[in-house]
Amino acid sequence: MRVRSVVAFARKLVTFGSVLTVSLIGPTAVAGAAVPPSPRHSCECATPSIDRLQQWLASGEGTTVPATGSLLVPEGNRYAAKVTFLNAEWHVAVVWLGNQFEAQEDLSRSQGFWLTYAATDDLYVQLRPASHWSGGDKWLTRVPSTGGKLVTKFFSFSPDAWTSLPELGTPPYSFASALVEARGLVFVGKTPNQLEFRGLRIDGYQPPCL
To answer: 56-202, which class in CATH?
Structure first.
């Protein structure tokens, strides 16, 4: 009888452990789900950076604060990129993926990127290739408003997730070719917006520190 009691008790422990494991993992731990990598997946650069991306820039297009130059500001023991879009006009904020304008990266094998940000209104992010850098006629995807709260969202590089805006023009190249020669992610918006970026981690790619 004593042996049977010990076995029964052991089985209860195993069952309880299984339930506890499921509750700790939570409903988001599903096979194939996009889960962001640890923020400590790589060390930051010696100069200000966010996930090793050192060039977060106001381009001077549209009325923004700051008007030009770096968006990076100290935030605790790390950095954040902050910019305010003013007025009902197109604004542009740029991230160089290789930390210098001349660089380009092949992201054709990447699934997408995780963006940690806050926005008071909707905006868009364009994937700009080296061969077609200038102009507004780019492939883009919507970056939804967060109501000013910091969130982390995954943006897929699936072609179905990217489109263009008639107002900005139709890209004269394929989205697949843009992935092969990606130079930068460019945030654009036509409405007043307060933006803050805390993370930008691209699947399968680690920016070089310069």
So the answer is: mainly beta
